Amino acid sequence: MALGDPSGDRELVIIGGGPAGLAAAIEARRAGVQTTLIEERETLGGQIFKQPPPGFLVKRPAAMGADHQAGRRLIERALASGTEILTDHVVWSVSGGLTNEVGVYEPGASARTLRATTLILATGAYDRPVPFPGWTLPGVLTAGGAQAMVKVQKVLPGRRILMAGSGPLVLAFAVQLHRLGANVVAVLEAAPAPDIRGVAGLLAAAAAGNWGQLREGIRYLAYLRAHGIPLLYGHAIARAEGADEVERAVAVRVDRSWRQLPATERAFDVDTVCVGYGFSPSLEIPRVLGLALGYDEQLGGHVPSHDRDMASSAPGVFVAGAVAGTAGGAAAIEEGRIAGIAAARSLGRLTAAEADERMAAPRRHLSSLQRFRRALDASYPVGAGIHGWAAEDTVVCRCEEVTKGEIRRNILPGSRDPNSVKALTRAGMGLCQGRNCGAQLAAIFSAETGRRLEDLPALSPRLPVKPVPIGLIADPSRTVPTRIQKPSEE
Amino acid sequence: MRDGGADETDVLIIGAGLVGCASAHYLAQEHVECLVVDRGEMNREGSGTNAGSLHIQLRGPERLYSEEVLREFLPMKAEAARGWAQIETELGCDLGLKLHGGLLIAETDPEFAFVREIVEYERGLGLPAETLSTAELLRIAPHLSPRLKGAAYSAAEGSANTLLVGPAYARSAQRAGARFRTHANVVATERLNGGGFLVTTSGGPIRAKRILNAAGPWASALTRMVGVALPITGRVIQVSVTERREVLLDQLVGHISGGLTLKQTRFGTFMIGGGWPAKVDPATGRSVIDHDSVAGNLGVALRALPALRDVSVVRSWTGVIAHSLDRDGSRLQIFGELPGVPGYYVLAGGTLFTMGPLFARLAAELLTAGTTSFPVTCYHPDRFGTPA
Fold first, then answer.
1. Cis before B205 (ω within 30)
2. Which helix (H) or strand (E) holds B269?
């Protein structure tokens, strides 16, 4: 369903087809905005409402769980909204200015550039990469990666599993895995056991309309206890060991700021370690657009700054969902709705009064969700010690195989910028372009130079946003704007 | 630093790019006290962002050089090539050097006729080069397109890793006693009675007997502080690099009509440049990648090496390249003592990746012995006239 000229201008381009992007599209279309939504995967729904790939026939949707069904409904509404939806389209470039340009390609097919008056970035987040000795061994998975296996393909990631992480998602996932028949050997929670203040905070937040969430958390705790799965508070993963794959994992006690305490190790015979220490926003596009960023360890580090209408620092560019540091599908949906309404207002499709009226309900719901989130964050504060779990010989940059020691040795005296280490070591120069090592590189740089993490410039944003095959974007018909200079023309 | 007073040095080098770092190295070898300052990080601008091509054949504006200039320039080209062949031994480290020859390809008959003309012209000047037919070209570079008409070949060309060369010189210079101070922006330069300079930087004042301005496109902003403007400017270009692949290309590949430098690095990545212009965001002044330039640049690369079709670009960046604005368009480097400002030397201009190490060596000679082992009169800043 193409709206308008396929090569031409759009009022709104939404990047990302997860809950935030879908909700934004529904609201924008409701206001009559000409809208295009771009999703990299073949299916909509994002990580939370992850749908099976095409070819997987779902006969009994109820068996796929509540998330799947909620996602299905949202997707159906977006599909019916009149939004032009481009799945299996990869954004490789963006540029801002008077009009925003978005370069997309369809793998194996073709590339084109879309121009958009407004942009909503709903690009999501990825599991916070946490380097520790052995983290590159087969058998070490991120919780998100393991969850995708379980949710979509119903495949267990291993036989004997150690869960290591922080926050309620780790509990939820341990329970989910156990229910599917996995042997969860133990759950390591880096935060200390909740004290009375934490519990009181959670209760107060729950009283504000979030009883369901609290009840769910309590149910998970009860489940673990009933099935004899030890939950070790104040413990973190120290290392994974094994010849070619994980054979053993070692846990260690950590203090309140997640610094490892000596002589407190404890080994587990496992074939799988699932690691879930929260998320990091996908910042490639916000960085290339030069959006102002804030720093919040709890939200995974740098996060695009935004106002209550989800407007970023760049005119006409909005952010919503996990890329804005938001946790959970429900909050992402409300932020997406607000961003979609705000974009419609900035396009003149809604008056300020109409927009306010439409934003009222999502704002109320969002503020209640945020209250619970803040209480949770207070119970599970991310400790700065997490940046110090790698050993000297731990590979930090997996693409270019650069160790922590090599990074430390290449910090030039007087340097204020981790980019200079990147240049000397190639850390962050591989296929993932620093997604996995950027934060750790900055943390090592910070520890060595004494400069605060939040003051360090991030690795320079570079196009393409995602690797792009030359054949798709090359234009062999152009010539460089210079002329031939012949000796005979002197 | 003396308490309360200015830091002192014999030679203050402004700019910690390749030229500044290499000059510090050669000066420190001669036990000359030097301090290198930079407004930002080391090796960050053109020195670290250019594509790392080592050009020995005459390129673009160099073909406009007069006979007089060429008499000085050509022996230096040959010496620069000799220098690159030894640089990893000299500095005792891996600089990603790859010296397997360079090609200037032709796609059309008129371009190939021009290749022949260029090669003949260069051979007449004593610069070794040869013309390769399509068959000869494919014998040494079998993955290049069979549609190419041929190429000019120079055995001395190749490439090096721009990210490593400047810092390697800096480390060596530091070992020999040179000092470096980054994030020290020069804001004022005052000539002192009785000689020498007092230089005010954001990192504190510095008293220097002599100054070597190695600030690339910003050189003129600095010489203006002592009353001399130089016609030197910057141009923002962009470079792209791909994922790693098996070895498909040994040589540096350029295009006789411009618009391409292509090489496969020792890491297996392809580095693609050729002077395609970047954009400048009028709002922020930041240089940003120009999509059309990327598409055009990759297009020329694809025409040269069709196997690039399925290779992914992982990173494009912009960089500022300096060049002088000689009235005849020749863009010659600027090297020498500033007219009317004794003790103030300038070394800046274009193609100072290939030629930088040699020029830096000559700068050290000039500052220690007062003479250079190669005649360098054609580069002197007095060619722009002396200030009133």
1. no
2. strand B269-273
Number of domains in chain A: 3
Average pLDDT over chain B, rounded to whole? 93
Q: Would an 8 Å CB–CB cutoff place B256 in contact with chain A?
A: yes
Nearest in space to A190 (alpha carbons), one of A389, A415, A438: A389
Alpha-carbon distance of B230 to B335, in angstroms, equals 11
Q: Under an 8 A CB cutoff, do B258 and A476 touch?
A: no
Name chain B contacts of A479, Cβ cutoff 8 Å: 257, 259, 296, 300
Q: How far is B379 from chain A (nearest CA, A)?
A: 19
CATH code of A409's domain: 1.10.10.1100
Select from A433, A480, A490 the Cβ nearest to the Cβ of B259.
Answer: A480
B258·A487 Cβ contact <8 A: no
Cβ–Cβ contact B291 with A under 8 A: yes
A461 in reach of chain B (CB within 8 A): no
Residues of B in contact with A290 (CB under 8 A): 284, 286
The span from the CA of A5 to the CA of A7, in Å, is: 5
Q: How far apart are CA A131 and CA A125, in angstroms?
A: 18
Is pLDDT above 50 for A490? no
pLDDT digits (tens, 9 = 90+) for A87-104: 999 999 998 877 788 999
Q: Could you tell me if B61 lies within 8 Å of chain A, comparing CB atoms?
A: yes
Angle between helices A196-207 and A211-226 (to 10 degrees): 130
Q: Do A480 and B117 touch (CB under 8 A)?
A: no
Q: Does A334 touch chain B (CB under 8 A)?
A: no
- Per-residue pLDDT band for A119 (boundaries 50, 70, 90) equals very high
User: Would the CB atoms of A487 and B303 count as touching at under 8 Å?
Assistant: no
Q: Are B61 and B331 in contact (CB under 8 A)?
A: yes
Helix axes A168-179, A211-226, angle to 10 degrees: 50
Which stretch of A148-152, A406-410, B211-215, B229-233 has the lowest confidence by average pLDDT?
A148-152
State how far residue A442 is from chain B, nearest Cα, in angstroms.
16
Please tell me if residue A475 touches chain B, with a CB cutoff of 8 Å: yes
| Contact with chain A for residue B178, Cβ under 8 A | no
Residue B176's CB is within 10 A of a number of other CB atoms, namely: 17
A211 and A372 in contact (C-beta within 8 Å)? no
Name the DSSP letter for residue A293.
Answer: E
pLDDT of residue B61: 79
Residue pair A177/A150 in contact (Cβ under 8 Å)? The answer is yes
Measured between beta carbons, the chain B residues lying within 8 angstroms of A429 are 314-315
Q: How far apart are CA A40 and CA A70, in angstroms?
A: 21
Q: What letter does residue A259 receive in the DSSP assignment?
A: P
A487 within a domain of the structure (yes/no): no
**Any idea what the CATH number is for the domain that residue A117 is in?**
3.50.50.60
Residue A146 to residues A1, A125, A155, B192, B295: CA-CA distances in angstroms?
35, 15, 9, 70, 38
What pTM does this model have?
0.89
Select B102-155+233-324's CATH number: 3.30.9.10, 2.170.130.30, 1.20.200.10, 3.90.1300.10. 3.30.9.10
Interface-testing mutation among B265, B280, B312, B318, with chain A (most A C-beta atoms within 10 A): B312
Q: What are phi and psi of A232, to 5 degrees?
A: -100, 105
Taking each helix axis as running N to C, give the angle between helix B356-369 and helix B162-175, from 0 to 180 degrees, rounded to the nearest 10: 30
Residues A345 and A349: their CA atoms lie apart, in Å, by 6
pLDDT of residue A478: 80
Please say if the pLDDT value at position B318 is more than 70: yes
Q: Who among A413, A473, A479 is closest to B294 (CB)?
A: A473
- pLDDT at A141 (0 to 100): 94
Q: Please provide the CATH number assigned to the domain covering B7-48+163-229+328-384.
A: 3.50.50.60
Q: State whether A254 and A312 are in the same domain.
A: no
Question: Looking at the complex, does the CB of residue B67 fall below 8 Å from at least one CB of chain A?
Answer: no
